[in-house]
Amino acid sequence: MKRYKAVIFDLDGTLLNTLEDLTDAVNHVMRQFNYPEHTIEEIRSFVGNGIKLLIERSLPDGKDNPEFDKIFSEFKLYYTSHCQIKTRPYDGIMELIAALKEQGYKLAIVSNKNQSAVTELNNIYFSDYISTAIGEKEGVRKKPAPDTVIKALSELGISSDDAVYVGDSDVDRETAENSNMDCISVTWGFRDRKLLESLNPYAIIDKPAELLNYV
Fold first, then answer.
1. Which of 165, 120, 168 has its CA nearest to residue 146?
2. Mean pLDDT over all residues of the chain?
3. pLDDT at 33 over 70
4. Residue 189 neighbours by CB distance under 10 Å
5. Residue 30 pLDDT exceeds 80
6. 119 with 135: CB under 8 angstroms?
7. 49-71 average pLDDT score
8. pLDDT band, residue 1 (cuts 50/70/90)
């Protein structure tokens, strides 16, 4: 018997390994404006709260840097057009998405990535399965606020009781809680298992196919 009618996915670190493209985009703007570049592990620790905070964490003096707005704008432009160079679905993700769709689940993506990049990546990888793909927009609170999840639920025509949120981070766990949804955490993303265990989600999975055991 199905526990849920819909599955809402985080994008970065859950469906797609976007870390290399994010690192390359950050370092592109750092070079352009003569600031120090970052390692991929540094960027891993910076992601999860949206691209504005990613740039704030990457830039000396953060949002107080006088060039912040200019650098942030350049990053958005560059990343949107270079978001699919090295990005790939994690092993087993496409098979999982196809299986969920075949079994009748409604599917959505809710991400803190900018909307244009979310749309671009969904069109490339998941458009045969997922039509609701929501990213960060000006004037809409990003995760862990529930606003974007509530919008996704509305588009799917599903209540929070009938949906589960799947993500790889503490932000995703908090988002699910704020949205009155169960959370399933994945270990293949940007955070380690020890952190995920401390968050006490509904379940923790190590491979995409394991999700089918919990939905």
1. 165
2. 95
3. yes
4. 25
5. yes
6. yes
7. 94
8. low
DSSP 132-156: EEEEE-TTSPPTTSSHHHHHHHHHH
Strand partners, 106: 6
* Tokens standing for residue 155: 């588009």
Express as a percent the part of the chain with pLDDT over 90.
90
* Contact between residue 89 and residue 27 where contact means Cβ atoms under 8 Å apart: no
46 dihedral zone (left: phi>0; alpha: psi -120 to 50; beta) = alpha
Burial 136-175 (b: 16+ CB within 10 A, else e): beeeeebbbebbbbbbbbeebebebebbbbbbbbbbbbbb
C-alpha 65/C-alpha 97 separation (Å) is 41
Look at residue 181 and tell me whether its pLDDT is greater than 80: yes
Residue bearing tokens 């970052």: 38
> What predicted TM-score, i.e. pTM, was given to this entire model?
0.91
Per the listing, tokens 């988002």 go with 175
Strand pairing report for 16-17 and 88-89: antiparallel
What string of DSSP letters covers 61-82?
TGGGSTTHHHHHHHHHHHHHHS
